[in-house]
């Protein structure tokens, strides 16, 4: 089912598209002015001459959402280590990735999600930065040599949001309506339930760009991760929130991961103080499933591990054909413990591989 947000009337209201690189509206944090001051500092860090060498250099992409995640990391570091509050102790380094530069092609055609992390990982390995902040759903199941990812911050809401100017739910969209998404996972699940809709696949760009395209009428609706909208304080754009049963999230959706060099004990100690173990275990389960499937951007895959009311782990997973004509689902339940949850993810992957049969993942 779809959960409406009743406090705001979102039907037929134009979305704000006044977004620039360093303005308040660009970052979408109208409700949190203190963030904008910090975000401006993030951009200024590239041009200011520091009188003090930074203790921690945080590497990140330059999108408003990526900067929000980097600042969340910075705030948590300062909260746990007050000495890092000194001016210049933490520097944010913006790194443009190949995935950011090439927006005219689907991700699968240019090499997959690793393109959003490769340049940042290289900067980390070459000691140009000390830690790297990633959206975990962009991180390949393998990590580059000489790096570790010992920290996950507390996970945000994993659900997807439906955004539309003319309908209050997906079910209300007329047949033939065009929905924009860059995600095969969203496309396949959407078409499986609503085969009369049309989907534009290469609907790429940051959150602000996608909302601008929607506002300009390129599509009638779009689906975005609710976690990103919350981190950008942009939930006023949401028409309704999709339930887990209606739209199973991507592996690691809503989670932030922080990497460092494997031989950097100082950074590993800092990151250990930030790690949220429940999130780390859930992400480990989901990524074990993804690794078993050898999933890529060409395959619609979804997986979500969570604690149930009894404190156990409930893992739900699916694979689908790109057009949604075939969706295979499974679930597992067991103790909320690392070894058990890894086995659950692997077992679920093996089951779906067997049920899918040869050729399913090579379409």
UniProtKB/TrEMBL annotation:
Pfam family name, one: Porphobil_deam
Porphobilinogen deaminase N-terminal domain residues: 56-268
Porphobilinogen deaminase C-terminal domain mapped to chain residues: 282-353
Entry-linked InterPro entries: HemC, Porphobilin_deaminase_cofac_BS, Porphobilin_deaminase_N, Porphobilinogen_deaminase_C, Porphobilinogen_deaminase_C_sf
CDD domains registered for this protein in UniProt: PBP2_PBGD_1 (cd13648)
Superkingdom of this protein's organism: Eukaryota
Enzyme class, first EC level, given as a word: transferase
SUPFAM superfamilies (alphabetical): Periplasmic binding protein-like II, Porphobilinogen deaminase (hydroxymethylbilane synthase), C-terminal domain
Keywords assigned: Porphyrin biosynthesis, Transferase
Enzyme Commission code(s) on record: 2.5.1.61
Pathway note: Porphyrin-containing compound metabolism; protoporphyrin-IX biosynthesis; coproporphyrinogen-III from 5-aminolevulinate: step 2/4
Entry's family note: Belongs to the HMBS family.
Protein name according to UniProt: hydroxymethylbilane synthase
Source organism (scientific name): Penstemon davidsonii
